Amino acid sequence: MNEEVHDAAPGAPAEPAGPGPLGLLRTPTGRDEIDARLERLGDVDDLPADEHVAVYEDVHRGLRDALTALDAPPGPRPYENRS
Hints:
This protein has a domain at 32-71. The protein is 35% helix and 0% strand. It has 2 helices and no strands. It has helices spanning 32-40, 52-71. α1 (32-40) packs antiparallel against α2.
């Protein structure tokens, strides 16, 4: 039996391409604190996968804090301005 071993098909890359940026477009929300958090998601493009979770948790925490702030009443809370 005559077996030939071929390295790769013509035109195919020698090695599979590694992960890369998704290139997703983010539409600005008009709220600076939210846009900054969403922009932070792009940081994972340059990080190894095991470091993505820290970025996602940071973004989630910031977005949650921004949403919580929307429910806070304007002005000082009772007993906050004690003399």
